[in-house]
Structure formats: structure tokens, C-alpha cells
Amino acid sequence: MDIHLFDYDLPQEMIAQSKSEPRDSSRLFFIDASREPPLHRHMLFRDVVDELEEGDILVLNRSRVIPARIKAVKSTGGKAEVLLLERSGEMDWEALIGGKNINEGSILGTDDPSVSIKIEKRIVEGRCLVSFMGNGKDMTHEQVLCWLREWGLMPTPPYIKRMLSDPEEYQTIYGDMEGSVAAPTAGLHFTEELLGRIREKGVKVLFIILHVGIGTFAPVKVDDINDHRMEEEEYQIPDDVASHLISAIGDFKVSGRRRIWAVGTTVMRTLESAFDEKGDLVRDGGRTGLYITPGREFHVPYRGFITNFHLPRSTPLILLSTFYDRESVLNAYEEAKEKGYRFYSLGDSMMVRRQDR
């Protein structure tokens, strides 16, 4: 399938450079695909509670972005940058290294004179295994995470052109499991008050974990989307969450009622990764490189999907087009542009409800 089928033009001024304040005052493009023809409505995100029903299940990703960008300096005094991607082994990290003439064995200094970074091994071009030394001693993953909270920078996408004055702007209010290098952005719109109203309505709010890597939002650079490969990411579905989901899936098989709402492409990819060859949801977790493209049948009987407006030629846009319909998605994007919606990570949101049965 040609990647150009998932392309569209977007004026630069429509790329959001800051989140809405308060968060739930962002706009929501609601598509009710359970009607024929589908109904389009333009709302505020806080009105999402009106579209949820008692007994529904809302699934969110509680992964937290780590301040994974590190300004570094070579022994020659030249500038370098390290972007941590994920933990590797007991002490090392996989990282992207920016800077010239940085080889295996190179030692990079940091803004903290007591901490240095050693290039342990080159994996592929630009990627390396690195380790940290603090006061001459090897640093554990937990020690590095603690250090990053003071010295690291938030790894915001390149289309966000300003330095965030408050790093929490690029975190969900419920994210508490450190490990992502990009935010699960569909969840940025929720506030504690809104989640409280959702729970009061009788909606079950559940949390899974998928530590988002840089590959999730990377543009697809091949002509045929089927030639693209996703990078693997770590995920976990807690036992109690799996129990609720298994019950809802079983209820669908009996009554035909769809109850599960996925908040974000990372949630949908996690849930779809959790099924075994028999089609049963498996508790616990693992790693997933699942790439969802048109023609795929979903394991989960979703009632709907909440997601942001995605980059052209991106895997999240392809996933949304698989869940709904490519032409309908792109037509909705054109309508959103006409209505002045704000796009990408810090922008507005879309909610798509499928047929109930």
C-alpha cells in the first residue's frame, strides 16, 4: 500500500507549540461512526465525559517520559548530545549520539562535573551502548534516572520549536512509570477533575504501560507501508487490568456490547500485542513491535478510540486509518484544518466511536 495515500499538507502555524490551559479546554473532534452517515461534532475535550456511558472501560498509558536528552562535551571541548532510548542489561543504555568523531571508548563530559558518559559499543550508525560514571563509580539505571531528573532535558519532538518552561507540560497528569522518550500524547488532555467526573459516571479507568520509543512517531520512509518495521517497545498489562478486559471481551461475545475505549495509539498497540495464537488475552507483558495496517482484524471489541492529530506518513495515522477508514480520516483532517484545530503532540484531539454491535 502506497505511503502517499497517508499524506496531507499542514501549514506550520497549525502545529501546536504549547498545550491548552487548562488541559481539558483543548478541542475535540468527535466522529460518531455508529451513525449513517457518520456524525461530526466539534466539542471541548472536557465534554468527552458526555460520550462515555456507565460500564464503559477507558484504558490509558501511565508511562512517564524521562528527561532523556543530555548536553555533553567531548574531550576536545566540542559539543555533543546524548539521547537515551532505553535501558540495556544491568548498567548500560541504548542511546543516540549527536556529534562528530565520537568513537567506542570515548568519554563525554556533562554539565555535572561529577558525571561522565562512556561510549561502550556502536550498534548501528548513530546508535550506541553507553554507561554512566558518577564520581568514578558505575551508575545503576536507578541512579541515572535520579540524576536525569536534575540534569536531563525533555526530549520533545523537533516540530516543537521552543524549550518548555515547565517539563510537566509534556507529561500526562497520571504518568508515574518512567521509561518513555516520547509522551503518550492522547492522554495529555486529561485533568484530575475530568478523570474524577468520568469515574463518577460509572466508567472504569484502567492503566497499562508501554514505554514509548522514538520509532512510534517516526515518519514512514519507504514507498510501500508494508516494508516499514516498527521498533520494539516494552509493555505491561497488570493482572487486574487484564481481568477487567477479559470480562469485557467475554461480555461482547455474549451480548454484542462494546465497552472498551483506547486512549492513544500506544494503548491500542499494547492491547493488540497481548493476545496469544489462540486469540486469548495474556496477562503480564513483554516487548512489542506490532505495526497495525489496513486490513488487520482487531482482537479487542473497541467501542471507540481517542487520539491526537498525527503527522503525515506516520504509523499512528496508519493505525487510525485502520481503525476507522483512510479516506474518512483524511477528510476529517481537512475539516479540522478548516476549523482551525491545533495539530500534533500538544494540539487538539479526535474521538471516534464505532458501531456498538
Description:
The chain has two domains: 3-65 and 168-353, QueA-like (3-Layer(aba) Sandwich); 69-151, Thrombin, subunit H. The strands form three sheets. The chain has a nine-stranded mixed β-sheet. A six-stranded antiparallel barrel has the order 5-6-7-10-9-8. By secondary structure, the protein is an alpha+beta fold. It has helices at 48-51, 141-151, 192-200, 239-255, 265-273, 315-323, 326-338; strands at 27-32, 39-44, 57-61, 63-65, 69-73, 79-88, 92-98, 107-110, 115-124, 127-134, 137-138, 177-180, 204-210, 233-237, 260-263, 284-288, 302-308, 349-353. Helix 6 (315-323) crosses helix 7. The chain starts with 26 loop residues before the first strand and ends with a strand.
The third-level CATH topology of the largest domain is QueA-like
> What is the highest CATH level, the class of the largest domain?
Alpha Beta
Averaged pLDDT: 95
Give the topology string: H per helix, E per strand: EEHEEEEEEEEEHEHEEHEHEEHHE
Enumerate the strands of the largest sheet in spatial order, edge to edge or round the barrel: 2-1-18-17-15-3-13-14-16
Task: Compute the separation of the termini in Å.
Answer: 29 Å
Number of helices: 7
| Poorly predicted spans | none
Provide the β-strand percentage band: 25-35%
Radius of gyration: 21 Å
Q: Provide the helix percentage.
A: 10-25%
Structural class based on helices, strands and sheet pairing: alpha+beta
What is the total number of structural domains? 2
Q: What is the CATH architecture descriptor of the largest domain?
A: 3-Layer(aba) Sandwich
Looking at CATH, the homologous superfamily of the largest domain is QueA-like
Instruction: Name the shape in a single word.
Output: globular
Count every beta strand, where a strand is a DSSP E run of 2 or more residues. Answer: 18
- Summarize the main sheet: 9 strands, mixed
